[in-house]
Design brief:
The structure is a homodimer of 224-residue chains. The first copy, chain A, is of the alpha/beta class. Chain A is built from six helices and ten strands, in the order βββαββαβαααβαβββ. The complex binds adenosine-5'-triphosphate (ATP) (2 copies) and magnesium ion (MG) (2 copies).
Chain lengths: 224, 224
């Protein structure tokens, strides 16, 4: 569903060039839960953002469902992301003046889904992460783990084909973690493509495939 | 160094009352590394924020170095925090338009420390967390784990008596985690009070003492 061919990312910082991602060639497949592991600063978020069409490669190519992404306008990209990709950001990116349920409803409202259906889907998504009773709260009134769960609900509510999660369990205790990972595992079994960036060794049992990132270099790891 | 007597925290949300912390009585001692564990939303950040004089108790009392905190003005509190407490926030709270080194220098500049000494201490703190080479970068140019390490450096740079850390290793890989925990362990051995809120089971070997929080209730846990 997503394919990188020699895709790399460089940033200019003052007079330095930082290579966040070395040329990478890989595919993300439907029906698979793929883990991306690696040290802090190694390029995991960069790789995920590229797969999610959030950032453009500095060089190389990116294909989403067979379509070449490099040439597309920001509007066309935003449309693709809205309809095909669910993204859980490392810092959640919840909208502060909107309640939990308004945050989760947003992608559905952008898709012009009728209000009655929106309310059902939002309730289902929040229920899945155990946040239904706090739906009227603002992000600032929620704990770190509660905010993370709302961010996960928002990524799942449009039932996207590709779900990209950046450290989705970093703020969660073992119980909430198991809940979230079972749900992601189920979505992969139902034919979605699920990619999870993590440092947490507790997530390996859920993976079909593991990509290791080190200093911007991506390698496929054998599952033990 | 810090003492809570029947301290509790309630929030009004619409027409609900949320009890974030049930009346808690406990002391935090110098020379100890104390872990605070518990599920998402259980009250850990609330407890830590109270110990750090970041929020006032709704009822009960808080003492810092024998001084009753409840009656103090916001200015007096800010002065106490600046001189005696180092805080690593769950969402880092780095200042976006300031570079990593400017962020770490801030508490020292507020203390009117001479510039030459500030530069030395900042270099030492950033070196400790392996972020010296990225000191001229803005938070937005850093990965999650890199931002977290800068936040840790800032909390340590004033060499405070009490160091409060909210999930300080959530975004860190095993190597950076070990680095940070060894440093916190060393500070406790040198006579500081170190309190770490965490979900990470890998941190238990570093603890002298464990407090468990559940639904706002705090209990002392036996070390196994
Ligand atoms: N400003 C606020 N208004 C309303 N409720 C709040 C506020 N701050 C915290 N709470 C609630 O108080 C409870 C405890 O929150 P707290 O942030 O202390 O949890 P936590 O243990 O740190 O959780 P996590 O592990 O998810 O970070 C939660 O139910 C939270 O939603
Ligand atoms: N906008 C930017 N400008 C400059 N450098 C950047 C920018 N974004 C990322 N980088 C750098 O690219 C490298 C990879 O960053 P990335 O965020 O992908 O790491 P990561 O593996 O997700 O780390 P973490 O586990 O700490 O979240 C890092 O050295 C980072 O500082
Ligand atoms: Mg990252
Ligand atoms: Mg918290």
């Amino acid at each position: 569903v997503a394919e990188l061919i020699g895709a790399e990312k460089r940033y200019a910082v003052g007079d330095q060039i930082i290579t966040a991602l070395e040329p990478a060639t890989l595919s993300i497949n439907l029906g698979e839960l793929c883990l991306i592991i690696g040290p802090s600063g190694s390029g995991k978020t960069t790789l995920l953002s590229m797969l999610g069409c959030v950032i453009y490669p500095s060089a190389g190519e990116l294909f989403l469902k067979g379509q070449r992404i490099n040439g597309l306008s920001e509007e066309a990209l935003a449309h693709l992301r809205l309809h095909h990709i669910g993204f859980v950001f490392q810092n959640f990116n919840l909208i502060a003046p909107l309640t939990a349920e308004e945050n989760v409803a947003m992608p559905l409202n952008l898709q012009k889904i009728p209000e009655k259906e929106v309310r059902l889907k939002v309730a289902e998504a929040l229920g899945l992460v155990g946040m239904l009773d706090r739906r009227k709260n603002l992000p600032g009134q929620l704990s770190g783990g509660q905010q993370q769960r709302v961010a996960i609900a928002r990524a799942l509510v449009t039932q996207p084909e590709m779900i990209l999660c950046d450290e989705p369990t970093a703020a969660l205790d073992s119980q909430s973690l198991a809940l979230v990972m079972k749900e992601l595992r189920q979505l992969a079994d139902q034919g979605k493509a699920v990619v999870v960036v993590t440092h947490d060794p507790r997530l390996s049992p859920f993976a079909d495939r593991i990509l290791a990132v080190n200093n911007g270099f991506v390698t496929e790891q054998k599952l033990t």
